[in-house]
Prior knowledge:
It is built from seven helices and no strands. The model is unreliable at 72-80 (pLDDT under 50). It has helices at residues 2-20, 25-41, 50-70, 89-96, 100-111, 116-123, 127-150.
Amino acid sequence: MERFERIYEEHAAAVRAYVRRRAPEAMVDDVVADVFVVCLRRIDDVPRNALPWLYGVARKTLANERRKRRDLPVAAPEASYEPEPVGDSQLAAAFAALSDADREILRLVAWEGLPLRSAARVLECSPVAARVRFHRAKSRLAARLESASSFRPQPKGATR
């Protein structure tokens, strides 16, 4: 029980932030609670570096919640909860145009601050696969930004 309490104290805020960036506010408390129920039940399976493992559980829990809620009638669509890069509309548009998989690997590394080895654990892939996914996602994002900037109107008198 002591180990679980330590894990909870150290990582509850990070797990909540992870979930909040990926789910509507109405889901956050339930998903975070479910993550730590799984943690408590499987405490012997939790690795020493618990955070990537907890993110992996949160990722699966979110997927399960989305499947469950898809079956429920929805009165009105919820506002978008997925954060976009703030302050740069071109970056936000390029990021939004990426696949879910590309956005997730970029989020894990850039927003959650995970090293690629830990991101691989969250995504349940090898570190090499995570490195390849990250490189490809960065390349696709850069290409989208490049094509968007080539269509940007030039100020009067400017030449390319």
